[in-house]
């Protein structure tokens, strides 16, 4: 077999593949500098990108963490809101940022785990271009119904839905984790919700409290004040075990094995961020969320820290992406 080489390679008297040595050599030469940077990290302010408007769960958590991180590392940790594209504009910004630990991402992880399925035209790859640090706050979904709906638990809801002449309405933002969780829940119990689409979960909960719709599913953070105020009824929570912020509310998992969903507030960095930097950040967040006063604040918000480490979060992202991808495909769900 005759192998042709380019005229450039022949003119230089070397094999064409030798050109690949230069980028590799440059990377090797840069490694000591990367190590030095990691050793001195952090030496300047850290930007925590929140891909949502001010006031939401990620924003509130980001500012709480930012204050604690600033005190711990003696460098400012500043929240930068980059809203739009259902969270994907801010996520893409961080994914394309320098992997030096100074531009981080804090968001509901469902943006990353369902985004590839409901929005095929994403400009970034969550699993390849982002690397997890920790999940400082997890808030399960709470299945809530209007006060006058004659059901008190999941069994009664399923029975009511199957015999009712009119399908039970379910308010949710479309192509969201709450819609997918509601669909999966109903399918597991043998009925179908009449999905009512909203631009945001807050409006769905407002209409539920006003009796305009029958049910909704949102994080404990978003729903628990309505439950405690007697505006709606909570009939199930989607944590793996009974959840401290919702005493007496049974888990869906007690009836549907391994049914765990919710809002996983994750902190991530661009891929290829030095492991030493990730270790420092992971350690700092772990120390913050386990402080008694901070843990109490999380519980008051309706959340708790996740015990998963970086490797476990990465594996969880892979399995969740596959899980929800199947639900999206089976139900032909697309982002607007």
The helix fraction, in percent, is 40-55%
Number of strands: 9
Class per helix and strand makeup: alpha/beta
Query: Cα-atom Rg, whole angstroms?
Result: 23 Å
The end-to-end distance, rounded to whole angstroms, is 54 Å
Shape: globular
Q: Count of helices?
A: 13
Model regions low in confidence, pLDDT < 50 over at least 5 residues: 1-24
Q: Look at the structure and give the mean pLDDT.
A: 89
* Beta-strand residue percentage: 15-25%
Q: Which sequence of SSEs, written as H and E, runs from N to C?
A: HHEHEHEHHEHEHEHEHEEHHH
Describe the main β-sheet briefly: 9 strands, mixed
How is the secondary structure organized here?
Blueprint: H1 7-12, H2 21-40, E1 46-50, H3 57-73, E2 77-81, H4 88-95, E3 103-108, H5 110-118, H6 126-129, E4 130-146, H7 154-163, E5 169-173, H8 177-188, E6 194-198, H9 201-209, E7 215-219, H10 220-228, E8 232-237, E9 262-270, H11 275-289, H12 292-301, H13 310-331
Parallel strand pairs: 1-2, 1-3, 5-6, 5-7
Antiparallel strand pairs: 3-9, 4-7, 4-8, 4-9
Helix pairs in contact: 5-13
Characterise the protein shown here:
Helices cover 45% and strands 19% of the residues. The chain has 13 helices and nine strands. Strand 5, helix 8 and strand 6 form a beta-alpha-beta unit.
Key terms for this structure?
alpha/beta; globular; disordered N terminus
Can I get a quick summary?
The protein is an alpha/beta fold and 336 residues long. It has helices at 7-12, 21-40, 57-73, 88-95, 110-118, 126-129, 154-163, 177-188, 201-209, 220-228, 275-289, 292-301, 310-331, and strands at residues 46-50, 77-81, 103-108, 130-146, 169-173, 194-198, 215-219, 232-237, 262-270. The longest helix has 22 residues, at 310-331.
